[in-house]
Each structure stands twice: as structure tokens, then as C-alpha cells.
Design brief:
- A 7-stranded mixed beta sheet has the order 1-7-6-5-4-2-3, with helices on both faces. Strands 8-9-12-11-10 form a 5-stranded mixed beta sheet.
- The protein is an alpha/beta fold.
- The chain contains 15 helices and 12 strands.
- It has 2 domains: 216 residues, Aspartate Aminotransferase, domain 2; 134 residues, Aspartate Aminotransferase, domain 1 (Alpha-Beta Complex), CATH 3.90.1150.10.
- The chain binds pyridoxal-5'-phosphate (PLP).
- The site of pyridoxal-5'-phosphate (PLP) has 15 residues, from helix 4.
């Protein structure tokens, strides 16, 4: 199967989302990406040599090492992110694991953002630390804290472009520049922003990871992850993919490709709905505080304006009356669903106190910027008027 690569960087994202990666040809007339549902492929010397030499998009030998369906989606994602190449994984965590392990050894030092996706924190703290990889968690947006942490030596700086659940926007240009000066590579989890709102590689990051489960696939029906960067930086990531084996399934890659086609349309609707909800929460008496980078009241508003092409589809708010009141409000919702995850067509709401931050004490949560009553909302793509009405009746109850 030949994958014609529509890789012209002159094309705009909405066009790349449709046409990059796969094009029908007179030899293979499928208008949409065919699923190469095969574990193994006819072997030839060229593809075997490509695998050995780490030429990752030519090694279509065995699906853990390379598969034409995955290759087409990797090409599309690389074009969107402005990366030389991409590698798909079975989940966002498999991608994060491979990206980190491609750079650290026993004795390495990682400087990570204090506020991280829970499983990424767990991986660094409870899996890599016992193996001799020390991670210091710091407030990376604080120039003094960053400087002090980097001054002690650093191999990897790890952060999220927009943090969960307080939606702080990372000062990536400064972080990546200082990391490079300290001899470290910067790995950015860009799941919340997507390549449509920010391209971290252009801001100095060395590797980008996404949970493709979220906005990229966009329909809450597939788990996946991706690591993007230069071919050189991806070579050791590819080794981890080969050896740890967390490859994406070809059918999942097909679903991801199908989701990507509508990413620009969906993202526009997510952002519009998040803006509407943020404005609604801002004027509701039962809401103590709204956290949305699109609002001037958000601490990262300035950075959101300069570093992001839009304020994103996530909104957090603090309901008056504490966690019990927030949970009661959440459970009165008739359209929005109580579930973890984000970036799907349906609006999802979760309370950090009983999900992502359940292991922290109330005091630790407050220190992490999560006071009692906190709700995290992933705005879906429903009609905003229906969403507002749903939250109105839930808050009134
Ligand atoms: C969901 C998520 C992950 C993990 O991705 P999975 O696909 O669930 O493994 C990592 N980072 C962020 C920011 C996420 O939201």
C-alpha cells in the first residue's frame, strides 16, 4: 500500500486534516484511509534495513515496528504539528513513557511542572524515581524557581502546555530556551491545546506528546497517543516503541484519522462553547470563581493571548458551598456527563476531589489551586444554549 504524502507545509491545518497522509491513487482507489489489519507484511531487504537504521516510516514489516495505516496517520499528525515525524502509541501514557525513557538513565535529573496529569506524575515519582531518575517538581512559570532547579543540572524538562485542572499556560519560549542552555531537552504534553492552538516545537520544545484519546480522535471511542519531533530525537523513542511494544492498533489509527478530519470544526465549537460557559459561570451567583484562560481574570490570560491561537475547550469553576454542593450540582446535570477524560463531542464534567486529585488531602488540593467546590468541564460540541440551560438548572437545584 502506498501512502502518498501530501506534506506541503504551505497547506492550512483544515486541509492537512483531510488530505495529509493518505491519497487515493489509480492503484489504490480507496478515498478514505484503508485499514492494514495485518500483524505482518511481505518482507523485503529495504524495509528490514529501514527498521534497523531507525528510518521509522519505511519499516513496514510487522505492525509493532511499522504499519501502513499508522504511517499515514503519523504523516498527517507530523504535518499538523510542523514536526519532521510522529510515532503513534497505544495510549497517551505509552507515548509519555517512551518519550521520557528515550532521554533518561539512572542518575538523570528531570525538572517537571508541579501540576501534571496524575499518571505522568505517578510515572515520574513512583516508577522512574526508584530506578534512579530524580524528578524535581517546580512551578516552571516562576522564573526564579525554574532557574534554581535548572542550575542543579537537568537532562529533561517536562511540562504541559496548558495544565490540568487550573488551565495555567506554560511560558514555553522561556522554559525551552533556559532548558536548552542548561543542556536539557524539553518534552511538552500538548494534549489540551492541540496543534491547532499551539505548536510547541516552534516555541523551542524538543519533543511533543499528546493523548490522542482526547481532542485529536475527539469522539471518546479510542485510546491512543503520539510523540512528535525531529527524526533524530525520535530514533530512541522508536527503540522504546519496538521494545516496550506499546504500538497503536491499525483500527484505532483509522478511527484517529477519521476524527482528525473534523478537528478544526470541533475545536472551534469546543472553544465557543467553553467561552459561553465561562461567561455564564462568571455572572452566576452560585459560582465563586471561574478559571478560563480566555477571561481577563485568569492568571494566564496574557500568555494565552500571545502563545495560544485560542483559549481552549476546558473551563473550571468553583461552586459555592464546597465539594458536596459541587457534586450535587454535577449530579443534577441532564446533558453533561460525569466522567473523566476530555475532548470528546459530549460535554464531560468531573470533580478533582473524587477523581484526579482524590489522593491529596483538602489542604494539599488547596495548595495545588483546587479549593473545595472545584469542577472541571470539558465543553463538548452541543448547542451552547442547551449547555447553559443545563448548568442553569443544575446550579439552581
Ligand atoms: C488523558 C491524558 C493523558 C494520558 O493519556 P491516555 O491516552 O489516557 O493514556 C496524558 N496527558 C494529559 C494532559 C491527558 O489529559
Amino acid at each position: 500500500m502506498s501512502t502518498a504524502h501530501a506534506s506541503s507545509s504551505a497547506l492550512h491545518p483544515a486541509t492537512l486534516c483531510i488530505h495529509a497522509g493518505w491519497r487515493a491513487t489509480p492503484e489504490r482507489k480507496d478515498v478514505v484511509l484503508p485499514i492494514a489489519q495485518a500483524a505482518t507484511f511481505l518482507l523485503d531487504d529495504a524495509s528490514y534495513a529501514a527498521m534497523l537504521e531507525g528510518r521509522i516510516d519505511e519499516a513496514e514489516i510487522y505492525t509493532r515496528l511499522g504499519n501502513p495505516t499508522l504511517d499515514a496517520v503519523q504523516t498527517k499528525l507530523a504535518a499538523l504539528e510542523g514536526a519532521e515525524h510522529a510515532l503513534l502509541f497505544a495510549s497517551g501514557m505509552a507515548a509519555i513513557h517512551a518519550a521520557l525513557l528515550s532521554r533518561v538513565r539512572t542518575g538523570s535529573r528531570v525538572v517537571a511542572q508541579k501540576e501534571l496529569y496524575g499518571s505522568a506524575w505517578d510515572l515520574l515519582e513512583n516508577f522512574l524515581r526508584p530506578l534512579g531518575v530524580a524528578t524535581e517538581f517546580v512551578e516552571l512559570n516562576d522564573p526564579a524557581a525554574r532557574k534554581a532547579a535548572l542550575a542543579q543540572g537537568c537532562d529533561v524538562v517536562y511540562c504541559e502546555s496548558v495544565s490540568n485542572p487550573t488551565l495555567a499556560v506554560a511560558d514555553l519560549p522561556a522554559i525551552a530556551k533556559e532548558a536548552r542552555a542548561a543542556g536539557a531537552v524539553t518534552i511538552v504534553d500538548a494534549t489540551f491545546a492541540t496543534p491547532l492552538l499551539q505548536k510547541p516545537l516552534e516555541l523551542g520544545a524538543d519533543l511533543v506528546v499528546h493523548s490522542a484519546t482526547k481532542y485529536l480522535a475527539g469522539h471518546s471511542d479510542v485510546i491512543g497517543g503520539v510523540v512528535l519531533g525531529s527524526r533524530e530525537r525520535l530514533k530512541p523513542v522508536y527503540r522504546w516503541l519496538q521494545l516496550a511494544g506499546g504500538c497503536m492498533d491499525p483500527h484505532a489509527a483509522f478511527l484517529l484519522d477519521r476524527g482528525l478530519k473534523t478537528l478544526p470544526l470541533r475545536m472551534k465549537a469546543h472553544v465557543e462553547n467553553a467561552c459561553e460557559l465561562a461567561r455564564f459561570f462568571g455572572r452566576h451567583p452560585k459560582v465563586e470563581r471561574v478559571l478560563y484562560p480566555g477571561l481577563e481574570s485568569h492568571p494566564s490570560h496574557g500568555r494565552a493571548r500571545t502563545l495560544l491561537a485560542g483559549p481552549g475547550g476546558m473551563v473550571s469553576c468553583v461552586v459555592r458551598g464546597g465539594d458536596a454542593a459541587a457534586l450535587a450540582c454535577l449530579r443534577r446535570l441532564k446533558l453533561a456527563l460525569e466522567a473523566s477524560s476530555l475532548g470528546g463531542a459530549e460535554t464531560l464534567v468531573s470533580a478533582p476531589f473524587n477523581t484526579s486529585h482524590a489522593r491529596l488531602s483538602p489542604a494539599q488540593r488547596a495548595a495545588a489551586g483546587i479549593p473545595p467546590g472545584f469542577l472541571r468541564i470539558s465543553a463538548g460540541i452541543e448547542d451552547a444554549r442547551d449547555l447553559v440551560r443545563d448548568f442553569e438548572q443544575a446550579l439552581a437545584g
